[in-house]
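Weekend entry, working from home. Most of the wet-lab plans are on hold until the incubator is repaired, so I used the time to fold the two sequences that have been sitting in the queue since the last round of cloning. Logging both here for the record. First:
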Amino acid sequence: MANSKVRWNGSTEDGRTTSVQWNDNPFTWGDVSLAVEVAEVLKKAGSSPSRRKQSLDKLLKDTDKKQRFIHLVCRIKGEKVYDDKVEVKDIDVKVEDAELVVETIVKKVKLEIKENV
């Protein structure tokens, strides 16, 4: 997704309107990129709770990605994160938190991603 061309100005070329515009969006492109990645992993895993959990855990084996995800969940839930140096290795990430991120970011911003444009 890093090389994707993304149009985000309140409408898409096919006339759809987004519910969030960049100038009033509380999330960074990095947040959106991570949320899209989580959404794709959950979708690919299907409806089995154990497969979804395994897929999410596999994605978040990267400790930097896991820390970014945990901070994103905390921001969405309104919880303050005071220490960026907290070890996240032992924190268990729940599928429900991943679904919250997807609902809050991916389903509301309606990204239009174009490649090779």
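Second, folded right after the first finished:
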Amino acid sequence: MNDKHNYELSEPLIKKLLETLGSEWKDGSCLNDSCASVYRYFGNDQFMSIYVPNATETNLKQEEYSNFNVNISDNEYPQYDSIEEVIQSAKDMESEQADAKLLFADSEKIDPSECDAYDIDPTDTVEFHKCKATGWHYLFYADGREYPYYCCITVDDGEFKTLEQLQKWARPLYFQ
């Protein structure tokens, strides 16, 4: 920690966050950051960092902050006034991530007649799969092509090298 972190204020907050949120969360305090922090990496470029207050009143010019600032995967930056609110936000994020991991992870192979959305050449070697969590379909081409996974959700479609890439692509569509 550096002097800007205000150890007396930040250390009990960091301790409570780590104790409450569990062992997946780590102290992420950096010397060049204005505030001490904790973070959790969920995989697939998804993470959450929580920066704790370093002051009792905010003074932006002095880089003093009286609220909790959160970074969610470099896409969202909510602020919270209480530790209870930020803990709930972290638990909600964990729940979303658990749901996102289910996307296509628990799929079943189905008969092509159950999915008439794709125009498949009869000579193609393709398997049809259905995600148990969402009901969405994806195709797996077993002919050795570079991008064997194909999926179309609403008007979006994509080809993917791995199931993990397909899951990462589908995640924002699932949560919109």
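Plan for Monday: verify the second prediction. Residues 114 and 128 are 9 Å apart (CA to CA).
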